[in-house]
Amino acid sequence: MLYGERNKQRLHHARGLAIGIGQKKHQLEIPKYKLNKLSMPSEAAKGLIESLLLDEGNSRMNMATFCQTHMEKAATELMAETLDKNAIDKSEYPQTAELENRCVNILADLWHAPKEGEYLGTSTVGSSEACMLAGMAMKFRWRNQAREMGIDVETLKPRPNLVISSAYQVCWEKFCVYWDVELRTVPVTKDKLSLDLDHVLDYVDDHTIGIVGIQGTTYSGDYDNIKGLNALVEEYNRTHTDRPQLVIHIDGACGGMLTPFTEPELQWDFRLPNVVSISTSGHKYGLTYPGVGWIIWRDREYLPEELIFEVSYLGGEMPTMAINFSRSASQIVGQYYNFLRLGWEGYKLTHLKTQENASMIGDAIAESGLFDMYNQGKRTPIVCYTLKKDAKYSDGTPVVWNLYDLSDRLQMHGWQVPAYPLPEGAEDVTVQRIVCRADLTFTLTEAFINDFQQCLEDLKEAHILCNEKKSGRYGFTY
Ligand SMILES: *Cc1c(COP(=O)(O)O)cnc(C)c1O
Q1: Angle at Cα 351 formed by Cα 436 and Cα 273, nearest 5°?
Q2: What integer pLDDT is reported at residue 170 of this predicted model?
Q3: How far is ligand 1, taken at its centre, from the CA of residue 456, in Å?
Q4: Is the distance from the beta carbon of residue 171 to the nearest atom of ligand 1 less than 6 Å?
């Protein structure tokens, strides 16, 4: 916008020279809209791209994401060495396939898959793909059962439906749009940001393919009460034998690889008989770089045959149920590295350390007296809060700024902390959320708390505010 086409080229020219690309004109162009005619030296291309990417947030100071932003050097090297392996090519890479199987076994064990059952699972690109698979399995199973019971499933009027709290992650909305399912959301309330067990069954009918329980919501990190939900579903199935069996899928993107270590006694997994599948993101608290996810069904029975496809494997056949076909196996290798390297104790210590740092941040924010805390980082390493109504500093100065202003201030110190409205049922409340991850060291935690407190002081004196009327989504909301 600022530069005319000519000037823009001159600017690129200058940048090219600055990093030492040769003098010929054709080598100085940085392609934006079409390919250059000729190649450039690899070092030059790398340097150019590196400098282009410099102007981005520092991933470790990104408090908005659940996604892993740091792995050990050995892991990174191992993953770089295995980038060429194609995860789907099981006959070319049988050992890689074996690593994937081991990961599935380990997760099935962590989630207490019943010994007498025949669990099944697969790696995916992330929880989104895993949730798609879970949703499809529920839909196909519901349809097979409903058809047998003489329920009309052909006219799609009404459509099959899926029940979930309004604090769902966007992948469930995608699932429902892609596969023509009605998304039935149970609104959360200002006081309770998880699935409302008093009302959830009001949303269920004979066209319900299943209920999704969220083990750690994206909004606030709250856990749904899965044990309570299981009891409701148990009773429902006992009293509605004329309907397809109601089942539960657990979206464990956040908690699937956290809860087994931080609260091993908590029953949210296959210990509950109506939980038929669980998905998680290996790249969240599974501690692997994006993108890897996992899904496991407690028994073959819950993954209809139609969704299992055979690929050739060492002259034989191997079942596959993922949506994607080719992708690098390096994330699976990275996941297995973590399992091998950390073991149960390692995961536990890592998560407890993260939890401690989150709790320190939560306490410091609560102590300021300006916020109502939704999550103080005690149970999940997530801190979530809203600005108090008529908040006042300890000397009586009223707060005139809002959480979007605070986000901007934190950004000036390099920290990305999103502010956003809560979902349906509590949409008039704006919150801020801090996701703590394993690479948030104690030193970084202290630095964050100092900066946060400084921001509160700075805002107290600030005269120019620009977010006063801002509404709607802002920043990172995933
Ligand atoms: C992050 C998240 C997802 C999506 O996970 P990806 O691995 O990013 O695809 C789904 N559900 C919940 C609850 C999440 O937090």
Answers
A1: 110
A2: 97
A3: 31
A4: yes
- Does 334 contact ligand 1 (Cβ within 6 A)? no
Confidence of residue 5 (pLDDT cuts 50, 70, 90): low
User: Which residue in this structure is represented by tokens 């979930």?
Assistant: 164
The residue out of 306, 338, 370 marking a domain boundary is: 338
Tokens of 278: 């669980």
Count of other CB atoms within 10 angstroms of residue 39: 10
Q: Report CA-CA distances (Å) from 137 to 129, 311, 454.
A: 12, 19, 50
Listing DSSP states for 341-399 in one string gives HHHHHHHHHHHHHHHHHHHHHHHHHHHTSSEEEEEESSSSSEEEEEEPTT-B-TTSPBP
- The token pair at 323 is 């949506």
Ligand 1 contact via 218 beta carbon (within 6 Å): yes
pLDDT for res 55: 84
Residues contacting 293, CB < 8 A, separation 6+: 123, 124, 125, 126, 127, 128, 129, 130, 253, 279, 280, 281, 282, 283
Structural domain total, the chain: 3
CA–centroid distance, 141 to ligand 1, in Å, is 24
Euclidean distance between CA atoms 111 and 274, whole angstroms: 14
365/368 Cα distance (integer angstroms): 5
Q: Which of 129, 193, 251 to mutate to test the pocket of ligand 1 (most atoms within 8 A of CB)?
A: 251
442 and 366 inside one domain: yes
Question: How far, in Å, is the centroid of ligand 1 from the Cα of 210?
Answer: 19
Same domain, yes or no, for 178 and 302? yes
Residue 14 lies in a domain: yes
Q: Is residue 1 part of a domain?
A: no
If you ran DSSP here, which 8-state letter would residue 476 be given? -
State whether the beta carbon of 380 lies less than 6 angstroms from ligand 1. Answer: no
Residue 65: inside a domain, yes or no? no
**Are residues 409 and 434 part of one domain?**
yes
Residues 322 and 295 placed together within one structural domain of the fold: yes
Measured in Å, residue 463 CA sits from the centre of ligand 1 at 39
- Please work out whether the CB of residue 214 comes within 6 Å of at least one atom of ligand 1: yes
Q: Does the reported pTM lie above 0.85? A: yes
Taking the chain, what is the end-to-end CA distance rounded to the nearest angstrom?
A: 31
Residue-number span of the structural domain to which 22 is assigned: 6-56
Same domain, 334 and 360: no
pLDDT digits (tens, 9 = 90+) for 65-74: 999 999 999 9
Instruction: Name the band, by pLDDT with cuts 50, 70 and 90, for residue 175.
Output: very high
Specify whether 123 is located in the same domain as 272.
Answer: yes
Check if the beta carbon of residue 269 is closer than 8 Å to that of residue 112.
yes
Query: Cβ-count burial of 398 within 10 angstroms (0-12 exposed, 13-18 middle, 19+ buried)?
Result: exposed
Task: Identify the burial level of 191 via C-beta atoms within 10 angstroms of its C-beta, where 0-12 means exposed, 13-18 middle and 19 or more buried.
Answer: exposed
